[in-house]
Amino acid sequence: MAAETELTPTSYIEHHLTYLTTQVSEGSFWVLHVDTLVTSIVLGIISLGFIWLIVRRATSGVPSKSQAFVELAVEFIDNEVKNTFHGNRHVLVAPMALTIFVWVLMMNAMDILPIDIMAWITENVLGAHNWKIVPTTDVNTTFALALSVWFLMIFFNIKVKGLGGWMHELFCTPFGKNPFFWILNLLFNFIEYVSKPLSHSLRLFGNIYAGEIIFLLLGMWAATGVSGTIFGAILGAGWAIFHILIVTLQAFIFMMLTVVYISMAHESH
After folding, report:
1. Which residue among the candidates 108, 185, 207, 263 is catalytic per the annotation?
2. What would the pLDDT profile of 24-66 be if each residue is shown by its tens digit?
3. Quick check: is 47 catalytic?
4. Rounded CA gap, 175 and 192, in Å?
5. Structural domain count, the chain
6. CB neighbours of 16 closer than 8 A, spacing ≥ 6?
7. Which is catalytic among the residues 11, 199, 227, 268?
8. pLDDT, tens digit, for every residue of 82-93?
């Protein structure tokens, strides 16, 4: 962190929660979060590139540790998808589920890295005073992912049921085909369609963001003196261990909700 005249809880937290931004064009109100975009892309390349590399080198004999790990992950995701989605899962749904799980897990896992050490590295190596390294603490990331799933859900609704069948479902469920209930049916379905991307994105964002805030509070405690450093380090290590479960569970939940939404799009009410 750059030198400051006085470190206060407010300035400390504001520093770590400030994005590195740039305007899309001069005078535009559209702003890009450079740190979120760059970190997300790099983590995607690293994680999915690792899987691709292991698959390319896979052998039919005794697998290496890395191959066994990837095979275990692929089999686990495939079994979870099979239990939820009853169509041809290998064309899109299972690979998409694996991609989402691995990518979201990697983005969540950045929250476990020591926040002050990472801030020092980004400032002194990258020259960036503000750089948030956890993409899923940015609601733009989680909402973009959820919105992508939402568009896929609509696409499969139209592909499987046809445009007419999907419109019929919007206006005729859950209260029947009577024209008197058309508006009410549409209102109920509208609420469902709006709530899905909101709950899908905010669940992931809220849990990871809360974890980051706790790490920041523990970091402030560690700066209060020797006793604060000791207890802050102990509690920080304990929270980091517990947070491993949270980041994994949230990636799994996000992946399973994606599969459930796509599966629902293939079914008729």
Report:
1. 207
2. 777 677 889 999 999 999 999 999 899 889 888 888 778 888 8
3. no
4. 15
5. 1
6. 115, 119, 132, 212, 216
7. 199
8. 988 887 887 889
For the stretch 245-256, pLDDT in tens is 999 999 999 999
Give a yes or no: residue 4 inside a domain.
Answer: no
Please confirm, yes or no, whether 207 is among the known catalytic residues: yes
Q: From CA 149, how far away is CA 200, in angstroms rounded?
A: 9
For residue 21, the model assigns a pLDDT of 86
Instruction: Indicate which residue of 66, 140, 148, 203 is catalytic.
Output: 203
In a domain, 43, yes or no: yes
pLDDT, position 46: 93
Q: How many CA atoms within 13 Å lie on the side-chain side of 267?
A: 10
**Which residue range(s) make up the domain with 56?**
15-265
Q: Is residue 7 part of a domain?
A: no
0.85 exceeded by the pTM? yes
- Residue matched to tokens 């995607």: 44
Residue 10 lies inside a defined structural domain of this protein: no
